[in-house]
Structures are given as C-alpha cells and as structure tokens.
C-alpha cells in the first residue's frame, strides 16, 4: 500500500503542462494587457485635451462677495456695495455705502446744509437732481435716475467716487416726490434709502426769502447774475438790501399751505427710516450735525460751508410793511413767527 502511494505521488509530481501551450497563453495575455493599456491611455489623453479646451478657456473668476460689517440685523438692508459701470472702486470695492435723500422745501437752508454734508470726505450729495423736469416725468425716469445715483454712476463735482461712504441727492417736495410718494416709498424700502427731512420752523422767514429770491431772479443786482447762494459778505449785503412787500391778504393761506405740505410729507414717508431736522436748530446748535453723521453711520468730522447767510437781521428790518404783517398774524397760530427765533452774527 505504501509503495502504491509513493508511485501515485511520484506520478503527480512529474506531471508537466505542455511547454508550447503555456508560452502562447502568456504571450496572448501580455498582448491583451498592452492593447487595453494603449486604449485606456488614448481615452485619458482625449479627455484631458477636451477639458483643456472647454474647461480652462471658459472658466470664469467669480468675485468674492463683500462681507457685511458687524451691524445690527435691522441695519443690514441699509448697507450696500455698489458696482458702478463708469469706473472701478478698486480697493474700496468692499467699503459699505449708505443711500440717502435730503427732502426739503425751497428756501429752507437745504443748499447750505448740503454743502456742509459734502465737506465730509466720505459723503457725496449730488444736488437738486429733479429740478430738471424730464427726470421726473414718470416713475420710470425717476427710478432710472435714482439707480444711477445710488450705483455711483452719476458723476458731479460732489462725487467722491471710489471711497464714498454715503451717497444721495437733494429732492424738493414739489419736484415729483409728493405726487409719486407711494411708489417712491416702496423704492426707498427696497433699496434701503434713508431720508433726511430739513424744514424751517419760521415759515414767515421762509416766505420773505422766497420773495427776495424771486426779485433777484428778475433784477439780477449782482452784475447781471442770479445767485441763490453767495460766498461773499459783500454780495450778501447787496441782496439783503432788498425788502419785499408781503401781500397780507394771502399771507395766512400761504403759511397754512406750506405748513400742510410739511405735515403731509411726514405722513407719506413715516414708514421710511428718517431723521427730521430744522434749519433754526442747526444754526443755533452745530451738534445737530453730529446727529446727522451718526444717522448716516459715517465717521465724525467737523463740517464746514463757504456759503454766507444773506438775511441776518431782525424780521422787521427785512420787509417794507412790517406793521401790516403784525396786525394780520397777531392772535393767530402763526403769531410766534413774529418773534426772534435765532440770531446770526
């Protein structure tokens, strides 16, 4: 039995596959692997070529969005990062910008106030843009104009361009603002625009200023030129020399109309973010300007204007028929306008 097992094992050990068949198999396997390798490499090279043509050429660099500064949640809609089409903000691209509008009535000190704001190195207030009628024809033209201003694409002498921190304009109540108030309120809310209301408490002083300015437009006593605002004390003295005569029959209705317009404006825009200023308060207390800068969230600076005030003296010295005016206003809601409300040296 043992001998039979040995022969069996021996027989198993000496079994050999045919040498010729094994060699052919190995060569065939090697050839198959080489063919597969060449095929796979060609596909890989083709894909890389296609990626190079399609991917690297068409790839676009996406600008990293600017980070909103650390402000309270309610304030975020009022923080903007304009991308003007007329110039590049460069390193100031991510400097936040606030949008504002100065809303006022004629001869309320808005021109003087705007020069104060523009003396700030980071503020651009572009003037009385909607005094030009075609710009306020309808809401479409109004929106187009406002979009250019708030996108920093409305270039004026007031523009600070790249590093502007607050941009706006001066908009009188009778220049389409009241007529289109509903649509404008929606625009201001959607765009995050803050309103600065500037009025005069003493509407009698405003009325005198309106009449004096109308005279200057017609007579042009300053070398044939009309100037609503002056930078020279000599020019101011010449303009102040004119004393209008007020129609006392129309005085109270005119004062009432001006008062109602202010009240209506505050009612129309009471849902917007706003601050209410009075010309007399700014004259008497310049710390009011600090409140304005805090409202606009801009660095505090001393604000200055080159404009010279025209009418400085007591009211009784600025009109021809003072006694008649006193008789009409005494005992009325407007009697307080007769008294001195501020003094300017």
UniProtKB/TrEMBL annotation:
SUPFAM superfamilies: P-loop containing nucleoside triphosphate hydrolases. Coiled coil: none annotated. It comes from the Eukaryota. InterPro entries: Nod_factor_sulfotransferase (IPR052796), P-loop_NTPase (IPR027417). The chain crosses the membrane at residues 23-45. Keywords: Membrane, Transmembrane, Transmembrane helix. The keyword Transmembrane applies. This is Sulfotransferase.
